[in-house]
Design a protein that fits this description.
The protein contains 3 helices and 2 strands, in the order H-H-E-E-H. With 54 residues, it is mainly α.
């Protein structure tokens, strides 16, 4: 099963997605931890390589 959670900033997307993944034994991918470094967006090529190598 794949689920995409969309919403405004601060609306509880991450909380909802973690709870949903836990309750259905799904993998959870949080783009904030992949795309962003502290206060700086990572290069798109770096992100793609990391996601494709997992």
């Amino acid at each position: 099963m794949r689920v995409l959670v969309l919403g405004n900033s601060g609306s509880g997307k991450s909380h909802f997605a973690r709870a949903l993944a836990a309750s259905h034994a799904l993998a959870h991918l949080d783009l904030d931890t992949i795309v962003w470094q502290p206060a700086v967006a990572r290069a798109a090529g770096d992100v793609a390589r990391e996601v494709l190598n997992q």
